[in-house]
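>> Question from a student workshop board

For tomorrow's exercise we were told to take the sequence and the ligand below, predict the bound structure, and bring the output to class. My setup keeps failing. Could a helper post the expected result so I can at least see what it should look like? The ligand is iron/sulfur cluster.
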Amino acid sequence: MVARRKFATLKSFLNYIGVEGDRTIFTWVSASEGDRWAQVIKGATEKIKALGPASKMVKTVA
Amino acid sequence: MENIETKLREEAQRLLLEKKADVIIGYEKGTLPLTATPCFITRPEEAEKLIWNNLCTQNLAKFVHDLITAHKNSQKRVKPEDRKKKVIGVVARGCTTRSIIIHLQERQYDRGEVYIIGVPCDGYVESKKLRTAAGGADIIEGDMEGGQIKVKTAEGEKTVALKEVLSDSCRTCRYNNPIISDVMVGSPAPAMNPEAEYDQVKEFEAKSIEERWAYFTKEMAKCIRCNACRQACPSCYCPTCFAEQSMPQWVGIGEDATDTQVFQFMRLYHMVGRCVDCGSCVAVCPMGVDLRNFLKKIDKDCWEMFGNRAGSSMEDMPPLGKFSENDKEDFIYNP
Ligand code: SF4
Ligand code: SF4
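>> Workshop helper replied:
Here is what the output should look like for this input. Compare the format with yours to find the bug.
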């Protein structure tokens, strides 16, 4: 419930400061939805792969 | 304003004499020309110090929270039957009352612990703007009258229109009169220009993602991590800030640019439904970081998504503490 509103605003705010909004992926999966779980992970991985590695707000440790 | 000041002093004196408040937080003349500074009054005769004018900047709700917290901590070792209640009186304009409402919604203290002396507000002077308008040098002398400010610097004298140097927050303020109060001094101030409040945000949204990122990084690169913005903010009251936690350490404390971005991002994001646009953080920032451009976006989202304006109503709940059937769902990922 709280997460719902938090993620809506978080995604929008990240996008506003210039971090691709598509990187924020949020959804609900129930413990009984094994199939959907697999789909979500597959879909999310594909989306992120397509975007490539993140370059913003990434700290390089020397 | 003279009239308001007289009434304000009378009111403060009365409260202290009648023991309705143990301390009154207000503003007094600052040590530098054309400044006002927060002051704490405990004796009736000190009420003469109080002032109310366009130089009163900081959101005093910060100190209400500080004093109440300190008092509660001091009472912890006292036997329950001997504990004393303390009432904090505060001189409050619109944004200050909004911050107090947020504290009350977040159950930081009870309504009875604070006595609100409401004052109408027609905006305050942003000292960095005034300095620039005066030519950039230190202000040696100054005088404010009838919407005009006379300033003297080492380079000469100049007259600046008050309107020109008002804080950006004040220009588009929607709540310049107190939302709640126990007593009001002065009659309500005329409305500012709230229709324009999101103009800057809309303009920024229309830019490309790379331009937005460039601006964010440019602004955050100015930040020296002095934490003044956090210290001034009434909504930043956590006993231990995430920025200082070490187990786990959320963000590094060094000068790494990414750490600064993360610190700022997290502080800004914690303001969802909690930033009242008082501009105190902007006013205290020694580096002139444009925090408001980002805070206003959070405010805009909160209004557009949840129909909430931070601290604008005593009846409302914090927007992140509830949800509605009409909340948008387009951010949820559905493969
Ligand atoms: S973030 Fe800044 S403008 Fe917002 S409430 Fe805190 S001090 Fe005021
Ligand atoms: S007041 Fe300004 S310089 Fe200091 S931490 Fe805040 S943004 Fe950074």
